Amino acid sequence: MVIMLKIGISGVRGVVGPSMTPVLVMDFASAFGAFVDRRPILLARDTRVHSPMLRAACVSALLSSGCDVFDLGICPTPILQKAVRNRKAGGGISITAGHNDIQWNALTFIGPEGAYLNPFQGQEVLDFYHLGKFEKAATDDLGRLSFATEAEDVEPYFHDLAAHLDIEAVRAARFKVVIDACAGAGAPYLARFAETLGFDLIPINDEPNGFFPHDPEPRPRTAAQSVSVVKAIGADAGFLLNSDVGRVSLISETGEALSEEFTFPLVADAYLIRHCGPVITNYSTSRMIEDVARVRRCPLIRTKVGQSHILLALGQEEGVLAGEGSGGVAVAAFQPAFDGFITMGLILETMARTGKRLSALIGELPRYHIVKEKIYCPPARIHSVVAEVRKIFPGRKFDTGDGVRSEDKHGWVQVRTSGTEPMIRIIAEDLSKERARAKADEILQAVEAMMR
């Protein structure tokens, strides 16, 4: 049996039972407790049926390490991240596997700045974990468990959100908006979000019951139900969320389910007019963001895939905006985090200020065709297989900033290891749909041949 487990700088994730066990969770929580040096830790979880079990393991380990724990219960990761900063806590742990399916779960570690751990902080936690010798507090020094209140952590978040948006313009537009929370951590907070911005909410899958009605990765193939509702009621926009509100994909008022690649460029196109500055993205994100940044005369900086790498660059480069083609967007002035609420808010704000429909705003963006494939690869072989791609195509020039990536005047193709699963990801983009498909198929067939 293959053990599905991924250990990285931002935490650990795996299939619960075979690989993600309570013992493993306690060890990683103990390592994080050592990293924060017994300072208070905030804890939140999504709605997966096994999240309460992992939460219990986390609490036990953290209290025994001498850390006070403030439990936010079912709570989106962006709200947890803002609360860590507001409380000046030592850090936070979000128990969620985000876009992975229901079998998976994860511990995502949040630093005292409210951001994912950077590579240096993440390595320090891993050093504590691999050392395996965790100091345990004496009886008088054990941590204390407290339960956070809405007034302390949720209200400040939405108050700050309102301060960063033109809510009067959104309220005046009287939008009708469909939001599919996928029965995740965002479900209990949709009404509060709608109240803050003053739009008419039509929630879908807003019962946080722990069973996802579809794959929790926001993208067109998971949007069928929401598309039907948007069309039926004549909504102005539709949004799909992942299980912790870190990613968003869009549905226009015409019922078009848009690729998650459109989210970041759409936000950037309007935001950079008023807040010009460096834009951070990864090597796997559509050229749309390059075109938008060029038009707005803002420098674009690419990093490896993953919030940790992107948000580290956001701080180092004094960036104003960061995001990925997954539908994750971070606004530096709000918080260093992929945040679905501010993302949706900025899109509605742009619609309200310009008076344009969502389809019209999308129509102003350049159109590329992108193909995304993935293939399972045993962890022991995954890096060598990616490296072999360069040898199979010796005539091509490859960028090795993240896996291997080759560009031409029409588009690009990339092969890289997944940061969240034992998979090789193949992404191809081109002005032509046929060429994008051909580029992806060529690499996919080569990788499959190597795997035989």
Describe the structure.
The chain has 452 residues and is an alpha/beta fold. The chain contains 15 helices and 19 strands. The strands form four sheets. It has a seven-stranded mixed β-sheet with strand order 1-2-6-5-3-4-7, sandwiched between helices. It has a four-stranded mixed β-sheet with strand order 9-8-10-11, sandwiched between helices. The radius of gyration is 21 Å and the shape is globular.
What's the architecture of the largest domain in CATH terms?
A: 3-Layer(aba) Sandwich
Named CATH topology of the largest domain: Alpha-D-Glucose-1,6-Bisphosphate, Chain A, domain 3
Rg, alpha carbons: 21 Å
Structural class: alpha/beta
N-C termini distance? 18 Å
Number of helices: 15
Main beta-sheet annotation: 7 strands, mixed
| Domain unit count | 3
The CATH top-level class label of the largest domain: Alpha Beta
The spatial strand order of the largest sheet comes to 1-2-6-5-3-4-7
Q: Which parts are unreliable, with pLDDT below 50 for 5 consecutive residues or more?
A: none
> What overall form do the CA principal axes indicate?
globular
Instruction: Give the full name of the CATH homologous superfamily of the largest domain.
Output: Alpha-D-Glucose-1,6-Bisphosphate, subunit A, domain 3
Mean of pLDDT: 94
